[in-house]
C-alpha cells in the first residue's frame, strides 16, 4: 500500500493581510493540488488551514499520513504536544487560532499523522510548488472571508 504524503504552505501579504494556502496531496502515482485565497488573515492561519483543508479532502480515514510543511508553528504545536495543553486549558492566555486548532483536532483524530518540517524557499520542489499556489491564491480576485480571523480582530 502506498503512503499518503501531503505538502502544505501558507502565505500572507502583510501579517495580517490578504493570504492564501497551497496543498499537494500525493498517493501512489496520484497527485492533487488545492489552494484558496482570503482577503484578510495571517500567515500562521494559512499554514494551519492548509493542513486542515488537506485532511478534510481525504475520503479514506484511519490511514497513516505524512505532512511536510515549512511552518515550525504547526509542526511544534502538534509534535511537541502544545496543542494538547491548549485544548486542556481552553486556550488560556490568549492562544491564537482557537477556531482552526479545534477544527484540526477534530479531523486529525481520524488519521495517524506525522509532521515533518522542511526549509521554506529552498530546494524542495513540492514545498516550492505549494508556495506558488499559496501566493497566487493570496494575490487572486474574489478572496474569501476568513471569518475566524475577522470576527475576532475587526
Strand content: 25-35%
Mean pLDDT: 95
* Total strands: 5
Question: If you consult CATH, what is the topology?
Answer: Nucleotidyltransferase, domain 5
* Helix count, DSSP H or I runs of 4 or more residues: 6
CA(first)-CA(last) distance: 47 Å
CATH class (first level) name: Alpha Beta
* Uncertain ranges: none
Question: Over all CA atoms, what is the radius of gyration?
Answer: 15 Å
Q: State the share of residues found in helices, binned by percent.
A: 25-40%
Q: Which superfamily, in CATH terms, is the homologous superfamily?
A: Ribonuclease H-like superfamily/Ribonuclease H
Largest sheet: 5 strands, mixed
Q: What is the domain total for the residues?
A: 1
Oligomer: single chain
Strand order of the largest sheet: 3-2-1-4-5
Structural class: alpha/beta
Amino acid at each position: 500500500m502506498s503512503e499518503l504524503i501531503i505538502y502544505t504552505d501558507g502565505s500572507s501579504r502583510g501579517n495580517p493581510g490578504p493570504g492564501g494556502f497551497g496543498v499537494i496531496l500525493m498517493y501512489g502515482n496520484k497527485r492533487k493540488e488545492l489552494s484558496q485565497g482570503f482577503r484578510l488573515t495571517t500567515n500562521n492561519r494559512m499554514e494551519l488551514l492548509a493542513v486542515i483543508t488537506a485532511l478534510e479532502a481525504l475520503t479514506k480515514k484511519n490511514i497513516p499520513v505524512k505532512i511536510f510543511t515549512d511552518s515550525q508553528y504547526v509542526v511544534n504545536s502538534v509534535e511537541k504536544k502544545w496543542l494538547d495543553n491548549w485544548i486542556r486549558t481552553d486556550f488560556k492566555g490568549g492562544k491564537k487560532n482557537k477556531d482552526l486548532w479545534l477544527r484540526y483536532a477534530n479531523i486529525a483524530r481520524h488519521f495517524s499523522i506525522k509532521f515533518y518540517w522542511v526549509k521554506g524557499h529552498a530546494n524542495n520542489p513540492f514545498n516550492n510548488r505549494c508556495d506558488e499556489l499559496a501566493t497566487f491564491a493570496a494575490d487572486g480576485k474574489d478572496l474569501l472571508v476568513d471569518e475566524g480571523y475577522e470576527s475576532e480582530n475587526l
